[in-house]
């Protein structure tokens, strides 16, 4: 037997990975590893799905198995090809690929045939009661349920009704097919679960062929079985469904092969809502600008916000997989993206709220070319030229006329360093009639150019700047968390819309940027010195660049909370 070792160094195996390793070592299922990622195409993928994707595809990748993408399209009411396409794009962007694409609807015939077998074996029946009546008879975990008056219908009658259900003879909700198991079982899922219902709506792949559609519990395990899945991994809420999953497979299997279901904790994040239904509501009610709005927790939202696939995978790796639910601080995700962008983002100087700084002792009409490192964290990243001249733009709040003691930026009489350039001393400012600062004045010290021997003079502050001679105008979208509370979706009596952060998007126009940025392409990453990480929005056009703030340089939320 070959030794099974991960292809990359890893800290320790998560519990599902450990099961996979053991199964492979024991040669279970002929030494095969096959997983699947089974999204329902009823919305865009979110960061929670990324956690499942990293495990399903990651395990197959690490241990020489295969992972298929299977669209769980058993409910035509909510599903659409738009979602099918976006799901594929997002999985590939995250860095994974599937061996095959399948659809649960590919198995509608096999599932139907299996349902017919169950009826013939006396293990399924057509129930004509309403959903409410069926629910009332379910009982409680400690109290047995009540048997349906239709439970002992003759097999022939069941076959006839089930066929007619599918042929469109009956209205939605008028009858269902139920497995006949045990109305007194301690596991509520065994109390004659509904396995087929009537839906009279065109399906995005099978059109109007079917009117009877299988329920999730009836479709999922069987699809796993038809495909040859060995490890069917899902989230913890399915633990209680597992015995039913196994029961159906036992009725179906004609060999020793069995797919097995394993469950891990779903991802919950603070300040984030992940229910697809509510995300759809945000989009439909125009509370955000579509599924890929950079404030959305969707994969396409994160992409547009400037997150990298590496940062998302690294975050998933940090949080790990467990058997108990919890909530992860979104600050950890923000940390992961900072950590990644710090290594890859080109540094640039951009002034968000510009005011003019005039260096009164700098020769009129002259300019010099200085050099700025593209990324101090990456020696191979090189450098770019920066023009320095008499008139520069600086941030309005980097100047204060009557400054408190601990203000280390520009105030009359005080020295600061201009990043990558000279030390300057502030001499004053000019204001308009309303008191607004029009220009700030300073003198530069020619002996203090960055890199010069004498340049080591200590000053407490460094500020960024852009020369007025070649600055380009850009727009900036300052994104922040979409919600103001940690658990916006939790309270059933509260409307999550009451918790929307009114400052989750602030648009700045007329920001001044270094000219080399004009060549930036959509989704390129930058660190704007002293401000944060930014990425080029795909709405940008030639001559009109828009940057999205991915994340600030430091976590400002924990400070706010501690106040
Ligand atoms: P919803 O109920 O909002 O429609 P879902 O969980 O049913 O979401 P699916 O499209 O069925 O969404 O999910 C596909 C896979 O992704 C499933 O295996 C599911 O367990 C997993 N998944 C979904 N949400 C999360 C999450 N927050 N954390 C981890 N895995 C998740
Ligand atoms: Mg689902």
UniProtKB/TrEMBL annotation:
| Glutamyl/glutaminyl-tRNA synthetase class Ib catalytic domain span | 33-342
Q: Which reaction does it catalyse?
A: tRNA(Gln) + L-glutamine + ATP = L-glutaminyl-tRNA(Gln) + AMP + diphosphate
Q: Quote the record's binding site residues for L-glutamine.
A: 72, 216
Q: Which GO terms describe its biological process?
A: glutaminyl-tRNA aminoacylation; glutamyl-tRNA aminoacylation
**Entry annotated with the keyword ATP-binding:** yes
Q: Where in the cell is it found?
A: Cytoplasm
Which terms in the Gene Ontology molecular function aspect does this entry carry?
ATP binding; glutamine-tRNA ligase activity
Residue ranges annotated as motif 'HIGH' region: 39-49
tRNA synthetases class I (E and Q) anti-codon binding domain location: 462-537
Residues that bind ATP? 40-42, 46-52, 235, 266-267, 274-276
Enzyme Commission identifier(s): 6.1.1.18
Q: Mind listing the UniProt keywords for this protein, alphabetically?
A: Aminoacyl-tRNA synthetase, ATP-binding, Cytoplasm, Ligase, Nucleotide-binding, Protein biosynthesis
Establish whether keyword Transit peptide is in the entry. Answer: no
Database matches in NCBIfam families: glnS, PRK14703.1
Its quaternary structure?
Monomer.
Give the protein name, as stated in the record.
Glutamine--tRNA ligase
Q: Which organism is it from?
A: Dysgonomonas capnocytophagoides
